[in-house]
Design a protein that fits this description.
The protein has 422 residues and is an alpha/beta fold. It has a domain at 96-196. It is built from 14 helices and twelve strands. The strands form two sheets. The chain has an eight-stranded mixed sheet, with helices on both faces. Strands 2-1-4-5 form a four-stranded antiparallel sheet. Strand 11 and strand 12 form a beta hairpin. Helix 3 packs antiparallel against helix 4, helix 5 (219-230) packs parallel to helix 7 and helix 6 packs across helix 7 (265-277). It is flat, with a radius of gyration of 27 Å.
C-alpha cells in the first residue's frame, strides 16, 4: 500500500483520556489525541514527561490505568482503575452526605421521614453511578477478552473468500498439483490467522538499539521471531522475508548470520526497524529512534523511516525530544509536560504560533547554526507556578484555532485567541 492509496482523514488510532499511574506517580494523566492514516504524529517533551510511557501503554506493554485506545475503530486498550476509583469516590461522598442526616434523625426523631427520603435519594444516585461504572468495567474487560478472537475471525473470513473459490476451481479442473499447493497454502495461512492478534498491526522501534536486541540471537533470528510466533513454519519463506527486510533497510543478506555486537549503532537501529516492518504493520511507534545515534547517522535513519513511510504507507507515532528533528519529520505535533498534553497543532502552526509557555520554552532551547544569532538567542524558562494561576479556574484542552489545541483555562483561552487574532 502506498501513500497515494491512503485517505488522510481516516483516523487510524484514537487515544481518549489515557492514564498510566505507577502508584502515586501519574506518568500519563488524561492524554487524548488521534492519529490519521498515513501521517506522522510527533510527540515531544523533556525526559520523564511521559512520552515513552504513552507509546508503551498504547502497544500494551503496560496495562493502562484508565482511558481507552481505539485502533481501526476497535478498542485495543481499556483502563478500568478510573472506573473503580469513581465507584469508591461516589461511595465515600454518599457516606459523608448520609452521616449528618442519620445524626439529625437521632437527635430529632420528628425529622426521620424527611431524612429517610433524602437518604433514599442519595442511595439511588449512588446506585446509578455504581451501575454505570460497573457496566463500563464489564464492557472494557469484554473488549479485551474477545478482540483478538474477533480479529482472527475477520482474517479467516478474508482467507475463505480468497482461497475457497480457487480451491474449488482447481478441483473442478482436476488439477491435483495446483489443488495440493493451494490447500497447503490455505491451511498455513489459516493457522497463522488463528494466532494473529490485532495489536501486532502496531509495531515499536525502541530507543536503545543495543538493549533492544538479544545479543545471543543472530540477526536472522531477531528479525524473524515475530513471524515464527505468528505461526510461520516455512524456513525458505522466512529466510526470503528476512533478506527482503535487510535490503529494504539498507543492509545486505550476509548480515543475517551475524550477531548484534558486530554492528554499529546505526546498523543496530536498522535491524530494529527491519524487525518491526517484517510484520507488515499499519502503524509504527518510533520511540526516540535516533537519540542514541550520531548526528550524521540520525539523518540516515530519519530518511530511511521517511522512505518506508512512503513505500509502505505507514502511519508513525514519532516520539522525540529534539524539536528540530520532529519539525522535519512530523505532520502534527503534540507537546507533553509532566504527564499531560499541553499543546497540539500541525508542525507548521506550532512553530509559527506557539502559545503554551512550555512550548515556547522548548522552542527557545533549539540551538541555531548561525553563531551571531546563537549569541543573541534568549532562553525562556518555564515555571508553571509563575506562568499559570489554576487555583480557581481549572485548565482543560481547548481548540483556540482550527486544529490547534492548548491546555488552558478561560482567562488564558481568551488571551491565546487574542494573540492569534493580532
Amino acid at each position: 500500500m502506498t501513500e497515494n492509496n491512503v485517505k488522510k482523514d481516516d483516523v487510524l488510532l484514537r487515544v481518549e483520556h489515557l492514564c498510566q499511574y505507577f502508584g502515586p506517580v501519574k506518568a500519563v494523566d488524561d492524554v487524548s489525541f488521534d492519529i490519521k492514516k498515513g501521517e506522522v504524529f510527533g510527540l515531544v517533551g523533556e525526559s520523564g514527561c511521559g512520552k515513552t510511557t504513552t507509546g508503551r501503554t498504547i502497544i500494551k506493554l503496560y496495562e493502562a490505568t484508565g482511558g481507552d485506545v481505539y485502533f481501526k475503530g476497535q478498542r485495543i486498550c481499556a483502563g478500568t482503575l478510573t472506573y473503580v476509583n469513581a465507584i469508591k469516590e461516589a461511595r465515600m461522598k454518599a457516606k459523608a452526605e448520609i452521616a449528618p442526616l442519620l445524626a439529625d434523625t437521632k437527635a430529632n426523631p420528628d425529622n426521620k421521614a424527611q431524612n429517610d427520603e433524602k437518604i433514599a435519594a442519595i442511595k439511588a444516585s449512588l446506585a446509578e453511578v455504581v451501575n454505570e461504572n460497573k457496566a463500563k468495567i464489564a464492557s472494557a474487560r469484554a473488549d479485551q477478552k474477545h478482540i483478538d478472537k474477533r480479529y482472527s475471525e475477520t482474517l479467516i473470513a478474508e482467507l475463505n473468500e480468497k482461497y475457497l473459490p480457487l480451491i474449488k476451481a482447481a478441483e473442478d479442473a482436476g488439477d491435483e498439483d495446483k489443488l495440493a499447493a493451494l490447500s497447503k497454502e490455505y491451511k498455513r495461512e489459516k493457522r497463522k490467522a488463528k494466532k494473529t492478534k490485532l495489536i501486532t498491526q502496531i509495531q515499536m522501534i525502541f530507543q536503545d538499539p543495543v538493549a533492544s536486541l538479544d545479543p545471543r540471537m543472530t540477526v536472522r533470528e531477531i528479525i524473524s521471531e515475530g513471524l515464527i510466533i505468528q505461526g510461520e513454519t516455512d524456513k525458505e519463506k522466512i529466510n526470503e522475508k528476512v533478506y527482503e527486510m535487510l535490503e529494504l533497510v539498507g543492509l545486505v543478506r550476509e548480515h543475517a548470520g551475524r550477531y548484534p555486537h558486530e554492528f554499529s549503532g546505526g546498523q543496530k537501529q536498522r535491524i530494529g526497524i527491519a524487525r518491526s516492518v517484517i510484520m507488515n504493520p499499519e502503524m509504527i511507534i518510533a520511540d526516540e529512534p535516533v537519540s542514541a545515534l550520531d548526528v550524521s547517522i540520525q539523518a540516515q535513519v530519519i530518511n530511511l523511516l521517511n522512505e518506508l513511510k512512503e513505500k509502505l504507507g505507514l502511519t508513525i507515532l514519532f516520539i522525540a525530544h529534539d524539536l528540530s528533528v520532529v519539525k522535519y519529520f512530523s505532520d502534527r505535533i503534540g507537546v507533553m509536560y509532566f504527564g499531560k498534553m499541553v499543546e497540539l497543532a500541525s508542525s507548521d502552526e506550532l512553530f509559527a504560533h506557539p502559545l503554551h509557555p512550555y512550548t515556547k520554552s522548548l522552542l527557545s532551547a533549539i540551538p541555531l547554526p548561525d553563531p551571531i544569532s546563537e549569541k543573541k538567542r534568549q532562553r525562556i524558562t518555564y515555571n508553571p507556578l509563575v506562568s499559570h494561576d489554576y487555583s480557581v479556574d481549572k485548565p482543560s484542552m481547548r481548540e483556540v484555532a482550527p486544529g490547534h489545541f492548548v491546555r488552558c483555562n478561560d482567562k488564558e483561552f481568551a488571551e491565546y485567541r487574542a494573540m492569534l487574532a493580532e
